[in-house]
Amino acid sequence: MSIDTTFLRRCIASLERAVEGIEEQEDRDDVMYDIYRAACVKEFELVLEQSGKLLRKRLAAWFASNRQADRLHFKDLFRHAARHDLVDCEAAERWLRYRDNRNDTAHNYAEDFAEATLKLLPDFVADAKALADMIDRADDA
């Protein structure tokens, strides 16, 4: 089964551009910094959700039915992915931390939570690209 990663990769590219934009901002009090920070957080959320959605599709092959895979919570997706060597254990742990961060930012829009998300983005972008690559490679198998 082929899984289309086009939208995920577009979201990753948008996130990378938002990160570049925020890095270009010298004045944190400038409204452009706030705009780029908001874009980073939103794209982070989109990439996270798309990653879980596509990983769920990839994991369906290890379950008796698609319905079983559909019932998995986000963190369980990455635990199963590590169990089946789709991602390594360290990457799975990072994905769990990304999800915790996303849950925190979704319930608290304070500036410090957004800044905490920004610190995660370099590793997150690399992990998201690796996940998209793994999903694409699995299509070749």
Could you characterize the architecture of this molecule?
There is one protein chain. This protein has 141 residues and is an all-alpha fold. Helix content is 79%, strand content 0%. α1 (6-24) packs antiparallel against α6, α2 (31-59) crosses α5 and α5 crosses α6.
Task: Give a short summary of the structure.
The protein has 141 residues and is mostly helical.
List the helices and strands and how they pair.
Elements: H1 6-24, H2 31-59, H3 66-70, H4 74-83, H5 89-107, H6 111-140
Helix pairs in contact: 1-2, 1-6, 2-4, 2-5, 2-6, 4-5, 5-6
Element pattern in H and E: HHHHHH
Specify the number of helices: 6
Number of strands: 0
Gross geometry? elongated
Helix coverage percent: over 70%
Please state roughly what percent of the residues sit in beta strands, choosing from under 5%, 5-15%, 15-25%, 25-35%, 35-45% or over 45%: under 5%
Mean pLDDT reading: 90
What tags apply to this protein structure?
6 helices; mainly alpha; 141 residues
